[in-house]
Design brief:
2 copies of one chain form a homodimer.
Chain A (H helix, E strand, L loop, with lengths): L1 H22 L7 H10 L9 H4 L3 H12 L8 H22 L3 E2 L2 E2 L1 H26 L1 H4 L2 H27 L8 H26 L4 H28 L2 H4 L5 H4 L5 H9 L2 H7 L8 H10 L2 H22 L4 H16 L3
Antiparallel strand pairs in A: 1-2
Helix pairs in contact in A: 1-4, 1-5, 1-17, 2-6, 4-5, 4-9, 4-17, 5-6, 5-8, 5-9, 8-9, 9-10, 10-16, 10-17, 13-14, 13-16, 16-17
Amino acid sequence: MSLQKLSDSMLPVIEQELNHAIIQILQPGLDDMVAMMNYHMGWVGEGAGPEARGKRIRPLLVLLCAAAAGGDWRGALPGAVAVELVHNFSLVHDDIQDQSPLRRGRATLWTRCGIAQALNTGDTLFVLAQLAVLRLAETVSREAGLEAARFLQETCLALTQGQYLDLSYEGRVDLSEVDYWPMVRGKTAALLEACTYIGALSAQAQPAVCQAYREFGNLLGLAFQVQDDLLGIWGDAASTGKSTASDLVSGKKTLPVLYGLSQQGVFARRWAQGAIQPDEVQALRIQLEAEGARRYVSECADQLTRQALEALARARPAGEAGQALDELARRLLKREN
Amino acid sequence: MSLQKLSDSMLPVIEQELNHAIIQILQPGLDDMVAMMNYHMGWVGEGAGPEARGKRIRPLLVLLCAAAAGGDWRGALPGAVAVELVHNFSLVHDDIQDQSPLRRGRATLWTRCGIAQALNTGDTLFVLAQLAVLRLAETVSREAGLEAARFLQETCLALTQGQYLDLSYEGRVDLSEVDYWPMVRGKTAALLEACTYIGALSAQAQPAVCQAYREFGNLLGLAFQVQDDLLGIWGDAASTGKSTASDLVSGKKTLPVLYGLSQQGVFARRWAQGAIQPDEVQALRIQLEAEGARRYVSECADQLTRQALEALARARPAGEAGQALDELARRLLKREN
């Protein structure tokens, strides 16, 4: 209830501020540069619309944390814009790196305008993110702006480290769970941690409170990723909206797969022989479950979820935003919606 | 004299700080990530050495401006590191975009480790640059750190805009001088402007002085680029160390070429018919000169050089660093060395 109500007032403002952050660079001769960003953001071009935009979970998280920590969420808007632009910068570059043809059901930017311009568009989104976060120095305080900028940079460093690991794991068969956590921390958890921390910073909350929000974001990210990995293999395609076959066929190094590899059993031996074919998926899901992967990963997700909600409780989120935050976390982790 | 002396003390410190900014991210499992940056920076791998590193003109400019504006150049080191990392981030991405096989006589990073990892390495250098510049908040002051970070972001935005224009000009024959300046401002002048401005900010110089340094950097960058364009067609290959044929054959949109296109004469008609072949270069150089391009571009370079030195004089650079700065500017623009 609280989440719906607050989302309804925050999301249109987020969209407007994101749009403003991008079109501000418009100058004569740069129309197409802006158009490429507008396409990627889901505002224009084939398939534009809410589906193409994603859920804007990250900026929403910034604003809800700012409000729940006692601040005015409007002051946190530059932080919200910054994290969403960082997220989209990383998507544009990821799609080039993975040679992905589709993103949210539409042609990826690089397939439409070539690697060179897509790479540059990603760089531009990144710069705009950094410019946005520095504006917290004006909307909140110099200290908050500097600390948020510094933290966002550390986050981006973690993102590139996670991406490096992900790319370097390609084609390797000697991996195990120990290789999973640093990758997922960089690729998923770091940015959610930045969302909750920057939200709390924007409210000028006490350091211990900021720290609790930060831990909440980090654990939320880890729990979300582990849950996502679980659904990627055993999820119900109809309710998750993604093909449950894809994670095994795509060769992604998810937690169930890495757990399976470390068992050095039937699954690991098959994996070492090369790409999984779609007609093997059903048998391998059952094999992986028999080797204990499903139970292990499920327990992992439950534990991280519990820890995330405990961290949120320690932050003592207040009022309607506090309720909305709890609701958002539970919804993300259960993946209703 | 002053330049040689100050370079000798500053360059080793710059190299050490650059190295520190990169190896600080080393963690178990990330050796290769650091190795890719170390290779690109010219420290390790085939062909490593001073030639592979470039001249580190940009960080030197930061430190000389800081000292000439009355500051302690050691406090400006985070700014020096930041501009050189931004420069190298843009080189790594440029090489991918242009599919260049060689950079400073060595294999480019993407040809060694693939587009995906090279792209991510460029992103990492960019993040490290942003982290570095924020450290000016500690070595100089919070205000200087925030303003330098903000300005460096604006610079990076100009870089991506210049890069967008450069890429978008490929294959176009309807260009003229008016298309040249925004591209060159972004691709060359913006970063030199950041060097001189961040140097002056690090010395906590008065706003009018910072502004004069900033104009000096911008004009120095424009003058340098125009001079480079001139040498790229009419320079003496032996003394410039680059093939004089390359700029016409490569199809680069340099000022002489754009001037020639706007004359709509013999040169423009030949250009419109497709790539220039090496055996045509000599005749086209003469044609372009006959159409007035050489004189026009030469006058342009002289005027910008004069304006750059005037801006430097307005900044009233002091002491040995002031002399070194004047020497550096004159040397860069005459291209002795």
